[in-house]
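Q: What structure does this chain adopt?
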Amino acid sequence: MYGTHQSGRNIPFDYQSQVISYRPSIHSRRANLTVKFQDLYGFTVEGNVDDVNVLNEVREKVRQQGRVWWALEASKGANWYLETHVSSTLKASLRFSAIANAVTLKRLIRKGIPPVWRPKVWFTLSGAAKKKSTVPESYYSDLIKATEGKVTAATKQIDHDLPRTFPGHPWLDTPQGHASLRRVLVVYSFRDSYVGYCQGLNYVAALLLLVMKTEEDAFWMLAVLLENVLVNDCYTNNLTGCHVEQRVFKDLLAKKCPKISAHLEDLEFDVSLVATEWFLCLFSKSLPSETTLRVWDILFYEGAKVLFHVALAVFKMNEDQLLLTQQVGDVINILQRTTHHLFDPDELLEVAFDKIGSMTTNTISKGRKKLEPEVMAELDERLRRLNSLKEEEN
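A:
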């Protein structure tokens, strides 16, 4: 059963195998009432009939993508997507066919990995499989045994956060779901004591558990995410990396959406008020789950730059409304309302990549390098002030 740490055990009921269509009653259609239903991963979704229609269109696209991926497997073999991955060696050799295949895979992934394919495609393309292969097979089980019964600041915070992680979910919000999520988070906190545990990781790990077929695979996806995909120090005690990402995002907003940026400056609105949660939770608390996972499809293949693309897209999609705002609260309401109802991933990703324009990983890395000293100086100054206040109180 899903949630145990034994390899090869399946989830209790397979959210991913059924791509269903939602049909609101004729009374709902006429009255345009709010309707509730479960999405592919068991989350309760609340929206109007227009939202349901969008989701039905998205589901049909998922079916079409599934047929494309199955056809590719039939013609090229079970692991065809591995052969299209362009390594530095292939780039150096300038093998046109391999590079062309990689471009095709990139386009396919941006269109969405079918849910049934996600676990194995993520696990291989992200580097999680390679990371797992470097340790003994019993590594995860051994860590579970070694950490059992141990109490740390991290385990205390994890226990506090478990019931607050997607409450009401039919599996995550059960004793079995809590136990599974706890094991993943606790084991990782011992694997990397420098990171330990940071609020936000509970939502990321929970969604990984719903996608991956085993608890152990979810653990390795979390490991590759924190150790290879995201910027360093995003989840450390002082969130240094996250603060740097926020500053880079603010600069990018000024370049890509100058009117919005200038208006928000006039309102004295700090973009980190909304973007911090986006970057720490990787949109898992903000976007509908299926839209979040489309973002993660790209994240695990192209890297963390997609987070900037998507964050900018959310602002860009609301440009007209944001320019009319007069209060900080109005800005927050517009952005939250939009993210919670972004049921069409294609609409979001089209803006993110086509309208926002190109942003290379190198450009973002240069931005981080430029802004990190400034951020570190501010954090040091803040710490000095806190220590000074404590001394005065004593």
